[in-house]
Amino acid sequence: MLKFILLLIFAYLAGSTPSALLIGKLKGVDIRKVGSKSITETNLARALGWRYGIIGGILDLLKGAIPTLLAKNFLINDWQIILVSILPTLGHNFPIYLKFKYGGRGASTFFGASLTLIGVRFFLPVFLIWILIFYLTKITGLTNFIFPWIFSGFLYFWHWLGFFPFQYFIFGIFEAILLNFALRNNIRRLIEGKEHKTPFKF
């Protein structure tokens, strides 16, 4: 039980680390004051270019991957494993270091946790759907709003086939809810016709 509690704390604190904000600060830019004013790698890319956005995305991905990897190695109970896997996204969206405000959207952290949870063999094929949605829409927020539900459907299908426990499907549902809540303003702007397409400035 002590390992579980320590991993929960570590997962949340790791998720709370505002990677994109810290990178922006190192370059003398507060990304909370530019673009969408969110601490996401997409907004970091708007401010500094996609090289920095990619770095921020990798760091956010690791925030989800490392706690999940530790949980899979040190925990046996599937419910405990998915709770640890969900907490980095929760921390990213509601970071304690920023008084639970200015959180990101959580997509990269979700990807890191998902990739580690189910493995490359299952994750990469379904991630092609994310690429397809993004290719068709050119809108990161909309893509990240839709994809977690599709991913959850695959988790249920894979559970039905006997590849993963039912708890992994619950992981997908909770992640989808977290991402959808974090993206609510993006979807509102999309409905109003004010959501910008993702830039590709290098």
Any overview of this molecule?
The protein is an all-alpha fold. The protein is 73% helix and 0% strand. Helix 1 (2-16) packs parallel to helix 5, helix 5 (78-93) runs antiparallel to helix 6 and helix 5 packs parallel to helix 9.
The helix/strand order is: HHHHHHHHHH
Q: How many E-type strands?
A: 0
Assembly of the depicted chains: single chain
Structural class: mainly alpha
Number of domains: 1
Helix content estimate: over 70%
The major sheet is characterized as:
none
- How big is the Rg? 16 Å
Strand content: under 5%
Q: If helices are DSSP runs of H or I spanning 4 or more residues, what is the number of helices? A: 10
Distance between the termini: 47 Å
Q: Which stretches are poorly predicted, pLDDT < 50 over at least 5 residues?
A: none
The gross shape turns out to be globular
Descriptive keywords:
202 residues; 0% strand; mainly alpha
Give the topology.
Blueprint: H1 2-16, H2 19-26, H3 41-48, H4 50-74, H5 78-93, H6 107-118, H7 120-137, H8 140-160, H9 166-182, H10 184-191
Helix pairs in contact: 1-4, 1-5, 2-3, 3-4, 4-5, 4-6, 5-6, 5-9, 6-7, 6-9, 7-8, 8-9
In short:
The protein has ten helices and no strands. It has helices spanning 2-16, 19-26, 41-48, 50-74, 78-93, 107-118, 120-137, 140-160, 166-182, 184-191.
